[in-house]
Specification:
The protein has about 350 residues and is an alpha/beta fold. The chain is built from 15 helices and eleven strands.
Length: about 350
């Protein structure tokens, strides 16, 4: 019952199809001092029975079950709370690790850094729509740490804060399976954002990295699986406006107003040219409102409008336009009309 060096946390829900491979990869790690914490979120497909089988035969597996379904993010946060390790290694039920994964991450640690990230392999299962597969593969290829920080194995907090100021909603870190996080980060910076449904992975990693920096291993140490029932696929099919419009908007809101993102605001002020995060937020809020009102999202217009109104209720500042923004926006539109007028006059 001592404190292990690493807790491999597996929050699971109806993950029977891939859970055995996931658990086998966790237990095959080359380090000795670790535990595996499985938290079942009231599964109904036999996932609990599979986890029970592993817990009975291997004392390193600690199994818990929620009496009612908490949902993905709350289940993840609860799993972390149950862990005893100094380092938290999240592993999602449809992913799996290379045997040397945790040992390599521990070997890459630098003093004062609370986050380690590694390269991962992506596979797409049959049944995923072609459009989603192609969009997913493009995004993963474009948004990587080596593209943003070429040749860097250690990225400092100031550098990463400057990056977040420029690219606030682009996930260049990846899924939680690709991270190792020190327990103190959860004590200092909180847990995964419960309101976000798609970008909570990125938001939390960024929240930590702008304070402690991160270590990067350019070696594939895990496999991430995209399949028809994955969170990404479900959100793309059923909750596009919520995932791709509201989530980025909430992140921008927090960059502007949350104390933990003060390093990003400082980086934005000192960037050249200066980045106005507040105006960027207001721009995004105006566009989100227009999308919802005009029914341009994937969901029916009424559902998108409900989601917009819910976001404004939770974050009232989304509906407020500052005088400076109004003036700037009016001037920009006037310049645009002037350019059009000049163009038409030259055409004559």
């Amino acid at each position: 019952m001592g404190t292990p060096l690493v807790s491999i946390c597996i929050p699971t829900y109806n993950g029977r199809a891939f859970l055995r491979q996931c658990l086998e990869s966790a237990l095959a790690q080359t380090i000795v001092d670790f535990e595996v914490v499985v938290l079942d979120d009231a599964s109904q497909d036999g996932s609990l029975e599979i986890a029970e089988e592993y817990a009975l035969r291997d004392p390193r597996v600690r199994l818990y079950r929620n009496t009612e379904n908490l949902g993905s993010v709350k289940n993840r946060n609860r799993c972390i709370e149950l862990a005893r390790g100094e380092w938290i290694k999240l592993l999602f039920q449809d992913n799996y690790l290379e045997p040397r994964c945790v040992a390599s991450m521990l070997g890459a640690l630098q003093p004062g850094v609370s986050l380690v990230v590694f390269k991962r392999i992506h596979i797409v299962e049959p049944g995923v729509p072609v459009e989603l597969r192609e969009a997913y593969e493009r995004y993963v290829a474009e948004h990587t740490l080596p593209r943003r920080f070429a040749g860097c194995s250690l990225i400092g907090p100031e550098e990463f804060a400057a990056h977040v100021a420029r690219y606030p909603t682009d996930n260049c870190i990846g899924e939680p399976t690709a991270t190792l996080i020190h327990r103190s980060a959860f004590q200092r910076f909180g847990f995964f954002h419960p309101y976000l449904i798609q970008l909570n992975d990125w938001e939390y990693a960024a929240r930590v990295a702008v304070h402690t920096g991160l270590c990067y291993i350019d070696e594939p140490l895990a496999t991430i699986r995209l399949h028809a029932s994955s969170t990404t696929a479900r959100n793309s099919a059923r909750r596009h406006y919520r995932a791709h419009v509201i989530d980025p908007l909430v992140i921008l809101h927090d960059l502007v107003y949350q104390q933990l993102y003060a390093p990003v605001r400082a980086a934005a002020r000192h960037s050249s040219p200066r980045i106005n995060l507040r105006h960027r937020l207001m721009d995004a809020a105006r566009q989100a409102r227009e999308q919802a009102q005009h029914g341009q999202a994937n969901e029916a217009g009424a559902e998108a409008l409900t989601q917009w109104e819910e976001a404004v209720t939770r974050y009232p500042r989304l509906s407020v336009l500052s005088p400076g923004y109004v003036l700037s926006n009016t001037w920009s539109r006037a310049k645009g009309r002037l350019r059009l007028l000049r163009g038409s006059m030259l055409g004559l």
